[in-house]
Design brief:
Elements: E1 6-8, E2 11-13, E3 19-24, E4 29-36, H1 40-57, H2 62-78, H3 80-91, H4 95-118, E5 125-127, E6 141-147, E7 151-154, H5 168-176, E8 180-183, H6 189-205, E9 213-216, H7 222-229, E10 235-239, H8 242-254, E11 261-264, E12 270-273, H9 275-294, E13 306-310, H10 313-327, H11 337-351, E14 357-361, E15 374-379, H12 380-385, E16 397-403, H13 406-415, E17 419-425, H14 428-433, H15 435-442, E18 445-450, E19 489-495, E20 516-518, E21 521-523
Parallel strand pairs: 5-20, 7-8, 7-10, 8-9, 10-11, 12-13, 12-17, 13-16, 15-16, 17-18
Antiparallel strand pairs: 1-2, 3-4, 5-6, 6-19, 14-15, 20-21
Helix pairs in contact: 2-4, 2-6, 3-4, 3-6, 4-5, 7-8, 9-10, 13-15
Length: 527
């Protein structure tokens, strides 16, 4: 089924003259699939189609869009083993991970469908007129969220399903009423094409306009750059490196009409180990964190890359146990030789810093593209002096920081860049005792965890997956959970508008049965 072509709406296209192949990191060879780089002409066609589709799709009811999303989930599932085996071949990730991630992807699509069926996410707000108000009459004002236009979504390397072609960005964009142009990730373009076919089949089945979805291939940065700069594109979703995300952000702001870029980027996810955690379950935490650092070859954006504690014999024992536990685990394959090279380079860079010492290092021979884990140790004062130690190493790597006291720990947390997550290990009484430490951590993160590991992101309305820069480009928004839809909409107020011409969400009779704010009070009743 894999053709290697681009999908401009429902049409296959191969107008470019440059091709590339994906790679099997387990076998350390290129796959048999050849993909055509999207041409400038194809980019224009995709954006033009999306613009035309938007004029129709933005007015579709929540029920109709929900049917589309649920059908996409069904069609992804219907792809069966071919999709799973393609995912495994292009990523090196195991079959169990592939099936789990596929389930998460279908769950995301269905969660947004449920959101659309209920409908109150549009935040309909009504303030009725008061013509007799003195000294000045009050006009009728009504407000709701509306979609902004065609959106470009960049597939991510480390989640070929959940953060790529039909992942959270695409699901939230389609739910909002915006068309999607996916810039497929070159490491799993075959997986992306199969998922694209599922989306297009669902679009046909549910009567969506041609151009509501397109999929473009590219092995380099040129196609992505052209898409971001295209005047017809109105927003960007990105999951990847700080370098890539900031480059897209700068491009988008250099346009004649700047557009929002919602980028989820780098994070070292600090973990604060308070004394009670060491007294009560030190070995258990050491074992859990060894597994968390190694999970998925360390290729999670929530990987715990920084562990901080107060200098003591118990913290030293915890660090030793962590090193022992992680040394017993076998390396696993990374997504691509380039990612493995980046891991080795980052690991070497931080290991060469003179202040560090080695806690654990897997130095036995490993197959090509397999990540050999490492844990370093450094004092709090040396960590503060050397910003290089703050750098994310994408892979199974972490640094343990020994702080002289709670004040130094607080100072370090305040000096950190923005993070996706922060974790506190301890007990409830200790949290009250270390309020300054907790506050410092909370100020740097988008999600603060108590007694857990950061790897694993629940998909639910309360999840916030984002954080202060450089964890994300806008800490107010999440890329996981149904609140992600708010990235692709803007508020519009309707003043003194005729009832019959108002959107259904704002009409007096409330035909959609939404919960709205009417004259300052929540209500789902007619006015």
């Amino acid at each position: 089924m894999i053709s290697g072509k681009n999908y401009i709406g429902n049409k296959k296209s191969s107008k470019g003259n440059k091709t590339y192949r994906t790679f099997d990191p387990n076998l350390n060879i290129a796959t048999e699939w050849e993909f055509y780089e999207a041409s400038s002409e194809e980019i224009d066609e995709a954006v033009d189609l999306a613009t035309k589709a938007f004029s129709e799709y933005k007015n579709y009811s929540g029920i109709k869009k929900a049917e589309f999303l649920k059908t996409i989930a069904d069609e992804i599932e219907a792809l069966g083993d071919e999709l799973i085996q393609t995912y495994v071949k292009e990523s090196g990730l195991p079959e169990g991970r592939a099936k789990g991630e596929r389930g998460r992807t279908m769950g995301q699509l269905r969660a947004f469908a449920t959101l659309l069926e209920e409908g109150s996410w549009v935040e309909a707000t009504i303030d009725e007129a008061q013509p007799d108000r003195q000294p000045m009459p009050k006009v009728d004002i009504r407000k709701m969220l509306v979609p902004i236009g065609p959106i470009v979504v960049f597939g991510s390397s480390n989640f070929p399903f959940a953060f790529s072609t039909a992942g959270g960005d695409t699901a939230s964009v389609l739910a909002s009423g915006c068309p999607v142009i996916v810039k497929s990730h070159p490491m799993h373009a075959g997986t992306g094409e199969l998922v694209s076919l599922a989306i297009l089949k669902a679009a046909e089945k549910t009567g969506m306009p041609n151009g509501v979805f397109s999929n473009l291939n590219s092995s380099g940065i040129e196609v992505g750059q052209q898409l971001v700069m295209h005047s017809g594109v109105k927003g960007v979703g990105f999951t990847g490196s700080i370098k890539g995300g900031t480059a897209l952000y700068k491009l988008a702001n250099e346009r004649k009409e700047p557009i929002p870029v919602f980028a989820e980027m780098g994070s070292i996810n600090p973990v604060v180990v308070l004394p009670s955690a060491l007294n009560e379950k030190s070995e258990d935490w050491a074992k859990q964190y060894a597994g968390s650092i190694m999970l998925g070859a360390g290729q999670f954006c929530t990987n715990p890359g920084l562990i901080l504690g107060l200098k003591s014999e118990t913290f030293s024992n915890f660090t030793t146990t962590l090193g022992t536990e992680i040394s017993t685990l076998l390396p696993s394959v990374m997504l691509h030789p380039n990612i493995h090279k980046g891991f080795e380079k980052g690991k070497q860079n931080l290991s060469s810093q003179p202040e560090t010492s080695v806690v654990a290092s897997y130095d036995a021979a490993a197959a090509p593209n397999f990540a050999q884990q490492k844990v370093l140790r450094v004092s709090g004062s040396d960590f503060l002096k050397n910003p290089t130690l703050h750098t994310e190493v994408f892979g199974p790597f972490s640094i343990v920081v020994e702080c002289d006291d709670a004040k130094e720990l607080e100072t370090i947390l305040n000096a950190l860049e923005g993070q996706l997550t922060g974790t506190i290990l301890g007990n409830e009484n200790e949290v009250k005792e270390y309020t300054a430490v907790v506050d410092a951590l909370q100020s740097r993160v988008g999600r603060i965890i108590f007694n857990g590991v950061p790897t694993g992101v629940e998909v639910c309305p309360s999840m916030h997956h984002g954080g202060p820069f450089p964890a994300s480009s806008d800490s107010r928004f999440t890329s996981v959970g149904t609140s992600a839809i708010k990235r692709w909409v803007r508020p519009v107020s309707f003043q003194n508008w005729p009832q019959e011409s108002l959107p259904d969400a704002l009409k007096d009779k409330n035909p959609l049965g939404l919960t709205r704010i009417v004259n300052g009070l929540h209500s789902n009743a007619e006015i």
